[in-house]
Amino acid sequence: MSGRNELHSRLHPHPQSSLIPMMFSPPESLLASCILRGNFAEAHQVLFTFNLKSSPSSGELMFMERYQEVIQELAQVEHKIENQNSDAGSSTIRRTGSGRSTLQAIGSAAAAGMVFYSISDVTDKLLNTSGDPIPMLQEDFWISTALVEPTAPLREVLEDLSPPAMAAFDLACSQCQLWKTCKQLLETAERRLNSSLERRGRRIDHVLLNADGIRGFPVVLQQISKSLNYLLMSASQTKSESVEEKGGGPPRCSITELLQMCWPSLSEDCVASHTTLSQQLDQVLQSLREALELPEPRTPPLSSLVEQAAQKAPEAEAHPVQIQTQLLQKNLGKQTPSGSRQMDYLGTFFSYCSTLAAVLLQSLSSEPDHVEVKVGNPFVLLQQSSSQLVSHLLFERQVPPERLAALLAQENLSLSVPQVIVSCCCEPLALCSSRQSQQTSSLLTRLGTLAQLHASHCLDDLPLSTPSSPRTTENPTLERKPYSSPRDSSLPALTSSALAFLKSRSKLLATVACLGASPRLKVSKPSLSWKELRGRREVPLAAEQVARECERLLEQFPLFEAFLLAAWEPLRGSLQQGQSLAVNLCGWASLSTVLLGLHSPIALDVLSEAFEESLVARDWSRALQLTEVYGRDVDDLSSIKDAVLSCAVACDKEGWQYLFPVKDASLRSRLALQFVDRWPLESCLEILAYCISDTAVQEGLKCELQRKLAELQVYQKILGLQSPPVWCDWQTLRSCCVEDPSTVMNMILEAQEYELCEEWGCLYPIPREHLISLHQKHLLHLLERRDHDKALQLLRRIPDPTMCLEVTEQSLDQHTSLATSHFLANYLTTHFYGQLTAVRHREIQALYVGSKILLTLPEQHRASYSHLSSNPLFMLEQLLMNMKVDWATVAVQTLQQLLVGQEIGFTMDEVDSLLSRYAEKALDFPYPQREKRSDSVIHLQEIVHQAADPETLPRSPSAEFSPAAPPGISSIHSPSLRERSFPPTQPSQEFVPPATPPARHQWVPDETESICMVCCREHFTMFNRRHHCRRCGRLVCSSCSTKKMVVEGCRENPARVCDQCYSYCNKDVPEEPSEKPEALDSSKNESPPYSFVVRVPKADEVEWILDLKEEENELVRSEFYYEQAPSASLCIAILNLHRDSIACGHQLIEHCCRLSKGLTNPEVDAGLLTDIMKQLLFSAKMMFVKAGQSQDLALCDSYISKVDVLNILVAAAYRHVPSLDQILQPAAVTRLRNQLLEAEYYQLGVEVSTKTGLDTTGAWHAWGMACLKAGNLTAAREKFSRCLKPPFDLNQLNHGSRLVQDVVEYLESTVRPFVSLQDDDYFATLRELEATLRTQSLSLAVIPEGKIMNNTYYQECLFYLHNYSTNLAIISFYVRHSCLREALLHLLNKESPPEVFIEGIFQPSYKSGKLHTLENLLESIDPTLESWGKYLIAACQHLQKKNYYHILYELQQFMKDQVRAAMTCIRFFSHKAKSYTELGEKLSWLLKAKDHLKIYLQETSRSSGRKKTTFFRKKMTAADVSRHMNTLQLQMEVTRFLHRCESAGTSQITTLPLPTLFGNNHMKMDVACKVMLGGKNVEDGFGIAFRVLQDFQLDAAMTYCRAARQLVEKEKYSEIQQLLKCVSESGMAAKSDGDTILLNCLEAFKRIPPQELEGLIQAIHNDDNKVRAYLICCKLRSAYLIAVKQEHSRATALVQQVQQAAKSSGDAVVQDICAQWLLTSHPRGAHGPGSRK
After folding, report:
1. Does an H or E element contain 1027, and which?
2. Cα dist. 345→121, 341, 381, 842 in Å?
3. What is the CB neighbour count within 10 angstroms for residue 1598?
4. Which of 746, 1008, 1119, 1209 is the most buried (most CB within 10 A)?
5. Taking the model in full, what pTM does it have?
6. pLDDT winner (highest mean) among 12-26, 265-279, 916-930, 1621-1635
7. What is the sign of the dihedral through the CA atoms of 338, 344, 350 and 356?
8. Is 495 helix (H, G, I), strand (E, B) or coil?
9. Region 949-964: what's the mean pLDDT?
10. Residues near 1184 by beta carbon (within 8 Å), at least 6 away in sequence
11. Do residues 1394 and 1434 lie in contact, with contact meaning Cβ atoms separated by under 8 Å?
């Protein structure tokens, strides 16, 4: 049972929550949880609360309680047994007589009996069935609880079970630690089992072992008992209990220990066999030990082996060691399980010893190797190591190494002959980590001391860091005593055969052996051997021979030789210079140091001596090399290396090279600063930069390094100014800078290295006048290079403001370049505004603004405007004259930025006036006003219209007005036109100009001539301007005035002249042939392209130039005109620079009115002029929009529409085109359009509507309806396509446009003609339509109503609906014609939103009573309703919004949405209920809701394995459903309770709406309060209210307080006490909850009677709360009396509160009492007792 409980507790871990939240589970699970957690007291409460005495868990609770008690008592019994055994053992040691022994035996027996009866009492207590029987201890418990078939194999096992016996067996196996208790419990279990089986007529069968083991509880119990008792049996007899008491029996163990033993099987035979084998093993080991201890003759092991080999084989096999070893192997083999792969260590060891003995004997014998050699006791070899035996054979017996190695390899013995040779003949090279660590610390100390000593001599005042050497624990004798070799002089030396054998195996090993071989080894006389008898004894090698062999071997290992050389190089002395490496190292006393490093015992002395020698000789590289080679494993050698490097830096000529390896950054920096004056410049710069880059250098030291580096860099730059340099090194230059600084400064200035001169001046002082000159030259130099950033930095670096002002003004007075002047003026006005005079400031500001504008111009054009830099307004005017609008834009923007707060002679208002004036000039007519048009103008317009459509001209404004200028700036290229239209003719006589050029007032006036006075053919028009020849004063065209020349008395030279004057004045100059006319003549007969007719001249060159003199400027302004005028783009581009957009817009409107008056002029292109007017009006509109003048936008739109009307009339060759003033009224254009439509001129009406901005829909619709009425459906479709547009959103909730609805209504109300019209002619007017209808006879046939689907008009309706209407209109059309299925399919195909479904299908269906028809269709189209999910959800939302809940409930039932249907039922339950009596009548809805949730649970459980689930049905987890069902059940209980209370008159309706459990937490708390207060008393409804609070986890304290306040309001003070009692008895309330409730009630103390108030206060338990209550009720004296009775610290705080309350209420008496108490009261009566009131 305990195992079952533990397993159950592991599978179900203890929850972390408290008991109360678990009460949401079923009561049985709550009881089981308490049992598993061991909370038996809480389990009894659950048992009592839910009446679960008859449940199976009740029996489990009783058993578990008994089981826990039995475990504790059993542990006490075992503790007593252990104490008795320890007492008995100690008394056994002390006993001396037999009498006492007998008495003790009797006492032990009595104690054993007491133990037996104690264990029996414990088990009887567990298994007692008297009183309340435990179900699980009944005999038939397992058969009755397990549903097993009668023939099942498990039934047989269950029938043999006895629950009491199993409980005792469980105690024995899991809770007992002693053998005695286990034995007693097993006997109890056997008795219980036997009695149980006897009562059922069964008996225990004999144990049958088979492959499957044993089966059934009785057999297991029997086998465990036998195995436990067998451990007390010996092999021959059974010991008595007295023997056991004496401790002579085998060790006893518990069942737990028995089960944990590694037996192959738990049976008597297995235990017996293992016991027998253990005894035999002990006997064999004893015999083998005795055989090995037999006395042997004292002879060497080899001699003993030789003697045993001389014996015969039977004698060897009969040796005792041989026999006992074989017995031991057999015994161990029996103990090894069959099939086990356990290693036979004993056999392997014995075989190794025998094989090694045989190999040693065979190496000494001359017999063949295959002869078997046997010895009786091979363990003799263990007296010496195998290496000693092999070395004895090699060097004493002189056995050839090859033979011995072959024998060892033949027997697979891992014994290395080369290793034996090396270990015997060479010095030992042992690696000792402890010695290495000791010598490391000692080496660090010694080398550090030597390095510091030498550094102190080389560096006097420079402190060095000392190496930190830890305290060593090395033996002092290791340092002081010289190392003596432990090698014995009697050991053998290296022979040629041994060396040859080593070479054959490993030449590297042979090399190391030669290096380590001792040169002087005494050869001891060996014992007699067969070689000595034959005279073949081998002589050891001499030292020279070993050295030669080593040298030859080293040549084969260059890497090893290099390693030896690197390690030996720092250690060799001057005496070893001429010898080879092998000669020096072979037999060298310090070889171990080379090979082992600090592992060598003599390494410390050798390295210290070599290091000191290198320091004395100032061989720094050798000292550093020694630390590098032998200090790799030393962590703290950096200080030693730094000390050596410091000595090298101080003593060596090139000491700077030794600074880089120094690790101490501070030391390196100080050395560099101290010795930098000795080294070359490049080396100094390198080492200083390296020191500065180290982050470990301190800031102060780094500053010194940086200053020194900057100084050296200045010297480097000065030395690099001349090649070759004047000074040999930087030290000489530094001396010169001190002695003769002027020479150095002049040389730097000559090279124009001003920055270098400043840097040099920081090192050496410069006079003020020289410094000003330096800064001025440097500043001008930087500005000439346009390096303004550096110039600004230079001015900022000047510390003296007076000097800076002086430098800047002197530089500005030199009048350098434009950029320089601009920079200097800007700097002066910015930084020295207050220090300049007004005149100077105005000059500088004007120059600054002019230079600023000039800098915005392209560099190649600045020369034409630079003379106006002092007058920015003239510069802007000249830009406008030359049509540089882009440049003027930047100039205006610059002026707007710079004129803020500045006074330079003009303002931005003057700039705006200038812009307005030149914008007006851009629209000036280049012709005089005339009344009629000439024929040439008409011909010219025809050519222009043939070349290109005016509407296709580009309309974007251009700033430069290049040859590709837009219309309005265009002009006719007369030469090309003339040459194409008329053949060139030569005048009859040559023209002779007047002798002197005429004055301006003598020129021919513009109004007098309309034809060119030179060619007499070209008419002056908008595209062919008039020009005056400056030489003769005549009016000529542009083609006849292409030349310029110098004219006497003319202001501008060269000036424009006519071709005749130019030819006359340049008769003698040959004229260059022109290729252009020939190219043009080649295409005479073709119509000229527009690029030749309308051409914009280039304006790149400056044609109009202003001057600073105003008189000259007036003359230029009087002659000025724009070649491209009238130009709308130029006018707009100029006005866009104006600040006031509103004024510009009105100016453009005025210009349009002025231009409209010129439409009657014969020289005007009316179409082009209207285009200019439209462009101007559009620009005016954009300006009004920009300015936010919405009231002026209508004015612009009105003018634009009027201009469009004029343009249409002009294009249509209307006879009387009205002027703009005549059609200003908006109704005028509308009347004109209506007149055209009434006259049935549809095309013209559409065109007028389009051009005037009126809506053309009406015109196209009227045209289409006319075609539709005529029956021409194809033409109607084409016309309606112009006015009907598909909706932007097909899913919008309307039926489309009104026009489409009219078309559909007409088609639905019209019968289709039987004979369709065959004539597809265009019916332009209604009169033609009537004529057609009169001439064609139409027989009309009425189509039956049932065949409307096949009706052509029906299909025509669908065409217009599908193309121009919404999905809602289409669906409504289908529904209107009873095609509900088509409507649904269209809804699905178009994936329309749910709103369309609601508006078009669902609402008409339920309003017309066809909801069931709709549901049937939905289900027939998609039985799963998946595709209708979102529509059904939207329908539910629509019904809920409309409050159509009955239809909603019906639809939810159709959707099978059980959860939402339950929610609707809940709504029916709670809607408009005014009392719980009404709610009680609606309980059927809650039952329906519960039924819906049950159905949902059933459907969820059935569909749990399915993957696909519907999305439109509301989902809810099973836990949530259960929770809601519990809520429904609880609401029904609450409703019934309150219904009963209302019927009894104990509860009244107080608030609406009624609170239910379906609301928020606040409403649920209202329900709880109402339940508590609704019954006869509080106790009547407290249980239901408590369940509400617990189920919904509400704030219980707040609810209780609210209920108490209501009781106070109802003056039911006795009920408050009942409420407190119920709260305290609930088991979930805290101690302070009652006080909190009472304090909350006391807040309304004014309405509570005094007696009741005092009673409530006295019911408060906590004194602090009582004080607080008295304070609330203003009973200050009572509060004071309670406060002073408390402990002093608490009393003090409470009295202070009372004092504060008295102060607030104005009670002076209580305030004085409190103050007196606070003054006189002290803790523990420090000043004696005092009186208190």
Report:
1. strand 1027-1028
2. 54, 12, 18, 116
3. 14
4. 1209
5. 0.38
6. 1621-1635
7. positive
8. strand
9. 36
10. 1141, 1142, 1145, 1190, 1192, 1193, 1196
11. yes
